[in-house]
Specification:
163 residues, 4 helices, Small Protein B, Chain: A, alpha+beta, seven-stranded antiparallel beta sheet
Length: 163
């Protein structure tokens, strides 16, 4: 039996929103807790989460997560919840007010980047304040990524020839 110290605890990533970095400019990221039912946390631990169409919104002074699909737990019975129901996010009031002032700017939104288990126990969401990209911005990003890939490929080939 091995005991883990505080430094050895790791965050286990459950799901990532891969399209988010392609569709949006990420301006700022933050961590938020999420309120889940018993069967939902079991599904999260099993990795049955889809963040693709998710977004967060402030309603009546509280932060809510919408359109995140958490599949019903296979062993669950009547206690399974609706897979895409709104879920409350746990953030301090001061942070909500700060987010609200930033969101009021034109074109900004809150999107989930990833969901993970912190120290193997609590489910957390990484939220980002983001601005939507235009089609030409997406093309520029793809071209930039291709150039970087080509440069790294050439460097690898060059280093192989040197030996």
């Amino acid at each position: 039996m091995s005991l883990k110290t505080d430094n050895e605890h790791e965050n286990k990533t459950i799901a990532r929103n891969r399209k988010a970095r392609h569709e949006y400019f990420i301006l700022e990221a933050m961590e938020a807790g999420i309120v889940l039912s018993g069967t939902e946390i079991k599904s999260v631990r099993a990795g049955s989460v889809n963040l693709r169409d998710g977004y967060a919104r402030i309603d009546r002074g509280e932060l809510w997560l919408y359109n995140v699909h958490i599949s019903p737990y296979e062993m669950g019975t009547i206690y399974n919840k609706d897979p895409i129901r709104p879920r409350k996010l746990l953030v301090r009031k001061k942070e909500i007010l700060k987010l609200q002032s930033k969101i009021r700017e034109k074109g900004l939104t809150l999107i989930p980047l990833s969901m993970y288990l912190k120290e193997g126990k609590r489910a957390k969401i990484e939220l980002a304040i983001a601005k939507g990209r235009q089609a030409h911005d997406k093309r520029d990003a793809i071209a930039e990524r291709d150039v970087e890939r080509e440069i790294s490929r050439n460097l690898r080939e060059r280093s192989k020839r040197d030996y």
